[in-house]
Fold these 2 entries.
Entry 1:
Amino acid sequence: MSFDAFAEFRMDGHNVIITGGAQNIGAGIAKTLSGAGANVMIADLNGEKAAETADEIARETGNDCRGMACNVTDKTQIDAVVKATVDAFGGISTLVNNVGWGGRQDNPAAIPEDEFIASYKLNTISAYRMSMACLPYLEKAGNASITNSGSFSSAVPAYDILPYATAKAALNQMMVSLAHMLNKRVRVNSILIGTVITEGYASAGITPEMQERMMHPDNLIGHPGRPQDIANAMLWLCSPAAQWVSGQTINVHGGGNVVRLFGE
């Protein structure tokens, strides 16, 4: 029998929740984990799109993939997703806190306080609430893991998206603390994501001109990433291949250093 170097990257028997998985990077993660054999529940603010994406993935991979609406800032809706996932798959072994969003500020010196609070609720508190809601099931699973979609903006000056970058920085601290709190029971990691051009940039106030500049970022590789680049890293961190990895931030950003993400 030949040696299968990819066997530990398989996700057969794993039951996964992915927040913000209806499109863009989240959809890429959902498709990749499903393709590796996992049962996947996509939870997204856009329930119709979540169901549509899940149906497409299920047809392509042949594995069980479902989608439902969820506002991750609402604990009641978080609990509903957790219950639906357990009812459908019998448990939860893997949580991907992928949801996140932040708009660009034209005047960083005049950001309303409410904008900081809303960003913290969406990008940080939601991940904590979802993690705690899944915890009773994660603790019963083998190779249980929580992996967050973080942002490279959390590690460099990024004052054009200050509320978002600040909230993602808080997510980094939370990840490390949870990894220690849940030691020996659940692995917890984060991916710091660099420039990946998606449809979401337009809704964040990133103009076509800015997006064109972002196609040639100042990183070691010289081009922006693809959703698949993030999904590949996510597969490793969620799979048994990374069973000895916890409390880590993995940079997937082309190796670059960015001070102003979007330019003047």
Note: Strands lie at 15-19, 39-44, 65-69, 94-97, 145-151, 187-193, 248-252.
Entry 2:
Amino acid sequence: MVMARTVWTGTGQVEHARSPEPDASWGLLFKTGGWSAVLLALLVLVPVALVFLAPVPPTEGAALLGYIAAHTGVYLTELVCFVGLAVPALVVFSAVALALKDANKTVAAMGGLFGIASEVIALALGGSPQSLHGGLVVLSNAYATAGRDADRARLVSAADALIAATNAVSWAGILTAAAILLLSSIMRHTSFFGPVLATIGIVAGAVGIVSEALRPVIGPAYMLYGLLLPTWFALVGWKLLHLDREIHQ
């Protein structure tokens, strides 16, 4: 497979310069990464759609415990989607880093490392957006069956503590955005990703770092990053699948 890009010289002549080519031996990883990116985009869009189709979870202990009891299916769907997307993200970051290693080995390695580390942290901590935590489902069940006011008060206090933890600054989220920014910064040097996707990724990464760092205070403005994130992953998935087809031509 030969990948080239057109270069205009100062004399007006056209030269065809070879751009960095991905290692064809990683073709299966590129294909898997492509489908993983598509899956990840869907996992993000499902709970985002539920935000508009179902009541938004409250952020106060007693109200949230009652909400979970009344909307268990919606709450669990959002929780599983947000926590579960870390698994395909691991594959995507690995595939993109290896595809870009010949464009800039250092930046590709750092971007891949940041991305993988962020998803490992998210899986270990059950990272998710505000008011989503598996422990709250358990507390909601206990709250619904509690017979004494003192028991319910203790459960509400525990719920408030978990809500505060999920609403805090997410280092996993910051690392994810940093990985997107780093990897996208070297995409413009390749013909298979190109400058358009690179620009989208740079914007998404920069907005993501700010959004994750200020998540406790920016409120609905976080949705901008929430839309840029699946867009970048969906486009990366399409590029990786196209790259896999080119390798096997």
Note: Residues 1-17 have pLDDT under 50 and may be disordered.
